[in-house]
Amino acid sequence: MTVRPILLRLHRYVGLLIALFIIVASLTGAALTFYQELDLLLNRHRLAITPMPGTPDALRLREAVEQMFPGIVSHYVALDLEATKPAVFYVESVEESSSLDFDEVFLHPVSGELLMTRRWGDLTQGMVNLIPFLYSLHYSLALGEIGIILLGVVAVLWFLDCFNGAFLTFPVGTGATGQSGRAKSWLRRWSAAWFIRISGVFRFVFTSHRAFGLWLWALLAVIAFSAAALSFPNLYKPAIGLLLQLDDPRGQLPMLDEPRPLPSMAWQTALTTGRSLMTELASEEGFEVHAETGLNYHSGSGLFRYIVRSSRDPGLRFAATSVWFDSETGARRLTHVPTGRGAGDTFTTWLHGIHFADVGGLPFRVFMAGAGIAICWLTMTGVWIWLRKRTGKSPKKIENFASAAKH
């Protein structure tokens, strides 16, 4: 009885401290579950694709981009292009001192016609960048590294508060004599916390806040934990590695003494090499390759990365089965299989898959979009309850105030 008031205050003030951040993250997250669809919709006047015969050739389009804009390079090629959607290339200047007013180039997937350029996330370029800006707002508050750290701290506080909030829904006292009677009474009284009552504004707000927190508790904990992991990968990976086998080489590539700006190997040769090495890896690990998704060159390590969606990828949009190989010799250097190899890799893959709504197909994406709105409601009702208590108004006065406001 002496601990509960302390935990209640802690829940209240932690909630108030992170409320605005959670509202921003939940609403932007709800929208970003349909990032590509919304981006194409808002820019449909620029990115309309005129159907024409032929199939997309990713490497040919990459060459077209570099010819179109001398002095730039594109180190990533999406290999899963569709004839009905624009081909997107991320570019950078060959000269480090040079600055570009764009880093994304959109081409017609068959003809190679230039459709649009933009600097990703730069809202000063107008509504063309609204969805990328929302993405930047979601993971960094559009503040860069400082925003990532800030939201990481918020995620840690949110994760811890999930457990405190759940505890506060538990009924106080035993309410019955006898061990069996106490258990039944406790569960019966706790079951009331899972329901929303609509008799009165205050009761509705309070019970919906409590019920939404219980309904979404597991998802809230996963989202908060994964957000912290994404914000602090240098802390997450060593920590999870102490408990589970984790050998994901991404972010830990062997760096060259001097960067190799351009690969010695031709991109077509690199693609052929990647396919051959992936076939070998699939045979070794016992998985099936469903589709190739990307070919990337990393100048700092001098390695190509060939990426496919395999039977070890739980999602469809963010494939990660990869093989890295030397851009001069073609020798295999590193591999990554998202699930089934190391427990830490499997856990992390599913954790990120849930966070990015990349498991369960379209139904789960719709669910996650709805969950984002529900999390916003959960946060706003928590603030409303605090305001009610701070003003000292009774539930009846709150109801009268709300009724008057409607009219």
Descriptors for this entry?
407 residues, alpha+beta, 12% strand
The number of helical segments is: 14
Strand residue percentage: 5-15%
What does the largest sheet look like? Answer: 5 strands, antiparallel
Helix content: 40-55%
Order of helices and strands: HHHHEEEEEEHHHHHHHEEEEHHH
Query: What ranges have pLDDT less than 50 throughout 5 or more consecutive residues?
Result: 397-407
The order of strands across the largest sheet is 2-7-8-9-10
Q: Report mean pLDDT, rounded to a whole number.
A: 91
Distance, first to last CA: 43 Å
Helix/strand class: alpha+beta
Radius of gyration: 26 Å
* Strands, total number: 10
Principal-axes geometry comes out as globular
Structure, described:
- 53% of the residues lie in helices and 12% in strands.
- It is an alpha+beta fold and 407 residues long.
- The strands form three sheets. The protein has a five-stranded antiparallel beta sheet, covered by helices on one side. A three-stranded antiparallel beta sheet has the order 3-5-6, covered by helices on one side. It has a two-stranded antiparallel sheet with strand order 1-4.
- It is globular and about 70 Å long.
- The two termini are 43 Å apart.
